[in-house]
Amino acid sequence: MIAALIDSGLGMLPTAAWLKRLRPDLDQLLFTDPDNAPWGPKPEAWTIEKVVSTARRAVEMGADVVVLPCNTASVTALSHTRVALGPSVPVVGTVPAIKPAAAEHDSIAIWATAATTASRYQADLVAKFADGKHVTAVACHGLADAIDRGDSGAVSAAIASAAERTPSGTRALVLGCTHYPLVVDEIVAALPPGVELFDSAEAVARQTLKRVDEVGGVAGTGDVRVFLSGRPGALPDGALAFEAGRLLAESDTQRFVQ
């Protein structure tokens, strides 16, 4: 069985790592797009075409399930990808963990990219799952880009800025960008004690495996293949700064090709 994950950068790593932990024999195709990242500022039509065309290529390469572990891709192109691939290929999107956070807490902050923060998609999720709660949307300018670049100074500055704009009474923090779990320890250190963090990577991975099991098929060998803006490649060295990246690199077949 093969799962294909599509994202502009390293935001797919947390979900891919959970898939590796939960189902080590699952083969994975990781499609990143360093030539055009980030996708957030791109025109909607451009993003839809990029995601749909990549998903079609993934299916041509044997993917049984397509995953969009990226809020921008899910917000913009999830429905289009499902239509393009048809009912025989499950497409799993990413939803910020607003629902579980609101089920447990009344004061919630959502850290996300500027594009997701301003989206109707996030506003609808808040209205649906957190109506009556105190919700603060915090745009983390530059944080995802800094993570992709491996710029620790810019990461720290972006986290500090977001923490300053997070109300002191916040009890739950939703990580609304799939990059952010990669620096979760630094985020926790910037917040007051007792703030509970919610992210969606494990839930997306479990939903993916549910769909994999529904499709059925032959077990894989646990190979991880990486594509960089369509070109076969390997996880970038910057990915190895994170535990998730190191876990996946052990199965990254191109990394060991001389």
Brief digest:
The protein is of the alpha/beta class and 258 residues long. It is 43% helix and 17% strand.
Describe this structure in words.
It holds the Pfam family Asp_Glu_race. Keywords: Isomerase. It comes from Rhodococcoides trifolii. InterPro entries: Asp/Glu/hydantoin_racemase, Asp/Glu_race, Asp/Glu_racemase_AS_1, Asp/Glu_racemase_AS_2. This is Glutamate racemase. With 258 residues, the protein is an alpha/beta fold. The chain folds into 2 domains: 2-94 and 202-256, 3-Layer(aba) Sandwich (Rossmann fold), CATH 3.40.50; 98-199, 3-Layer(aba) Sandwich (Rossmann fold), CATH 3.40.50.1860. The protein has helices at residues 13-22, 44-60, 71-85, 98-104, 114-117, 120-129, 143-149, 152-164, 184-190, 201-215, 243-249; strands at 2-6, 27-32, 65-67, 91-92, 107-112, 134-139, 172-175, 196-198, 224-228, 231-233. The strands form 2 sheets. The protein has a 6-stranded mixed β-sheet, with helices on both faces. Strands 6-5-7-8 form a 4-stranded parallel β-sheet. Helix 1 (13-22) crosses helix 10 (201-215), helix 2 packs across helix 3 and helix 7 (143-149) packs antiparallel against helix 8 (152-164).
